Amino acid sequence: MNKLIRFLYICLLGIMALPVRAGTDRVVNIPDSVYLFSYASADGSSGLKLAWSHDSGSWVSIASGFEFIKCDFGPWGMQKKMFNPHLMQNKTDGTWRCIWTLTSSGKAMAYADSPDLLKWGYQSHFKTEELTRYELQNVEKTIQKQLVIDGSNLSGWVQKVSYSLVEQLLRYTGYKSYQQMLSEESAEQDTVRFADLNPVTATIQINADESKAISEHLIGIFFEDINYAADGGLYAELVQNRDFEYTPDECDKEGWNATHSWSLKGSNVPLSIETDSPVHPNNPHYAVLEVQEQGVTLLNSGFDGIMVKKGEKYDFSLFGKMLDGKKGKIKVALVTKEGKEIAQAMITVSGNDWKKKHAVLTASADVADAWLAISPQSIGKYAVDIVSLFPQNTFKGRKNGLRIDLAQTLADLHPRFVRFPGGCVAHGDGIDNIYDWKGSIGSLESRKPKRNTWGYHQTRGLGYFEYFLFCEDIGAEPLPVLAAGVPCQNSRTPSCHSTDEISSYGQQCGIPLEEMGAYIQDILDLIEYANGDAKKTVWGKKRAEAGHPEPFNLKYIGIGNEDVISGVFKERFTMIFNAIKEKYPEIIVVGTVGPFFEGTDYDEGWALATELGVPMVDEHYYVTPGWLVNNQDYYDHYDRTKSKVYLGEYAAHARGRVCNMETALSEALYLTAIERNGDIVSMTSYAPLLANEKHIQWSPDLIYFNNSEVKPTVSYYVQQMYGQNSGNEYIASSVSLDNVQGAVKKRIGVSVVREGTNGDLILKLVNMLPVSVKTSVKLPLQNDWNTTVTKTVLVGKPQDREVCPVSGTMQIDENFQYEMPAYSFTVLRIHKR
Ligand code: AHR
């Protein structure tokens, strides 16, 4: 109710600010037209703002500086600048164009068009020499002015507009602030919002005869190498910088270079990094140790130390050769920080050709932060590269495999698909950083390491082959995502390889059109690599050589990642989409519709997908818990004839970007609405998935970890409860409450699905209220149901961060009672006999 009053108040203020229209029976005191001033903050940090005046004398900013359009150009954050936005209205059709400068020098310019100042088309570079229908004689007159708005002296453009336009802008911004207010609802206000609330009584009527088919792939995972999720995370390699390929341009941390994580003891000659005759051209750097006396040791400190377990075996390998001397023995050991050896083995390096050497180390103690020690035993000059240490105990015992505890935690989610390798990692920071899948397969020494857009190094030991294998190992569909021929619009690297101010200033740029053919061929080759015949196709053969003659049965391929849907994007996406459709019509292409649940990229992306008939689009939105609570009807009205939806990245972001019971419950609540819309929403994945707690670039994440522990969040348990209890049929149910307040109703979520394989009926019950909900469930049970049901409950206070679900059983009959605890998520699984 309070919300409604505030909304009405906002609308009233807007209306009071308006003069009274001529022709009504109220006092007539306005001219036919008023004045509109377009401006932005003087430092360029804002988007387009508007102020209006009835006499061009006293000015009022619209909605206190509401930003009608924000600049897309330039790298992350505040570097996306808008200076001096010049708004012009076309005399012929009344449409608008806003032209602004991107830099204070004014050399680089951009523009966007709008039919009504509310919806905006995509942004493009504006070249003054381009004659457009907005050339000066065809637009309403504008005058440049310096005005004081909300206490600041600002430069902008004034023009006459119709009074109804201002009315419309005020109504629109009033509605936007109302929506904003709803999104800001949080459990912190519950003590006030629900001060007098008594336990609620609910009746749920389940109508097992009324059902619809829903997606079997609703819950999946989105793996991106962010927060050290791959190297130093899921990829079980224990040696950091094994390839000596760290380069200063990957990260601005001091010492981020080819010797990072390595140190040399007992030598007068420093460790040198050379490039003359590498083991493979894709890995140009290698280490050279000139041993002039006994006692030289090359140490690697791993990723914050190397965690080893007593009795476990570790596979060691390196590529080595002698640059001076015929052959030399090398002791390989695991040592504690105090220098105590806990495992050791010997290898011999000989000749001046690279040879791969292996040894197995068995740990004699548990150590959380051991180091790897490589100690040449004879005088000579040794070259070493791709120094590797893997636990033998990887997930499913795979060589070059995955960390068992982390991979098992992912498998326990029972994900139906895995999206990889990003996120931003997929489309990269600048054209050269686009993730090239071919560079991520083959022998480890031939893989191309890559700068990670999140500011570190990717060995790509965990590459496309390993991703496909992991999907197979956990029974999930692979969903690779490739760039749509454009890098990330937020790239810090000048995308267009241009040094001049105008074209280097973002936004997106794209692979030159003459190179698109080769790029598209790479994408087609990926499909062949995954599915092609092991003997008859070039790329199928490569898969077989890697040890997997059977196809991986790739069904989905994502093109693009929340890109700006510009002309540059559209052209390239269309080329890729058409090529895949022609050669592999059976592949489901997943397009992209920008980073938000609304706005220009969302509109343009959906329009393009509809025009081309793209089977599925990838939506992304990181929103507040309040948004999820208040937008449960988001998909209810989606057009069922258009593309299906993959909600590829989402998470509730509360203040402080924490993951707690409130954020997790809001996700659980929203997922009841997703299940209801499982006929149109085909897939969902929380993002991001993994974070090494010592190397976090993004929060919250679903699972945190360090070298010895895996720490699933509350959101993880919500995903797990959904993943382990998903169905392929949605069963209709109705909920009636003894309390009809909107705020109460929208905090109770119910979803009923049937699982195809065994016919179990699954009830999901979410209660985001501070009181319990006494529920009476009416279920037309027939004899073939087991009356002992499995009950899994997640319950805690909104701010709790360490909560786990508890499972048990309970008895039910056709009309059973269940009390949903305050702030809880319950899954009841009714087993088919
Ligand atoms: O999930 C983290 C990042 O969020 C992804 O890389 C990107 O797609 C989005 O902006």
UniProtKB/TrEMBL annotation:
Task: Spell out the Gene3D superfamilies in the cross-references.
Answer: Galactose-binding domain-like, Glycosidases, Glycosyl hydrolase domain, family 43, Golgi alpha-mannosidase II
Q: Which domain of life is it from?
A: Bacteria
What SMART domains has UniProt attached to this entry? Alpha-L-AF_C
Q: Which SUPFAM superfamilies match?
A: (Trans)glycosidases, Arabinanase/levansucrase/invertase
Q: EC no.?
A: 3.2.1.55
Q: Which reaction does it catalyse?
A: Hydrolysis of terminal non-reducing alpha-L-arabinofuranoside residues in alpha-L-arabinosides
The top EC class, named as a word, is hydrolase
Q: Which Pfam families match?
A: Alpha-L-AF_C, ASD1_dom, BT_3657-like_N, CBM_4_9
GO MF term list:
alpha-L-arabinofuranosidase activity
Q: Which residues form the Alpha-L-arabinofuranosidase C-terminal domain?
A: 648-824
Q: Which residues form a coiled coil?
A: none
First and last residue of the signal peptide:
1-22
Q: Which UniProt keywords apply?
A: Hydrolase, Signal
Designated name of the protein: non-reducing end alpha-L-arabinofuranosidase
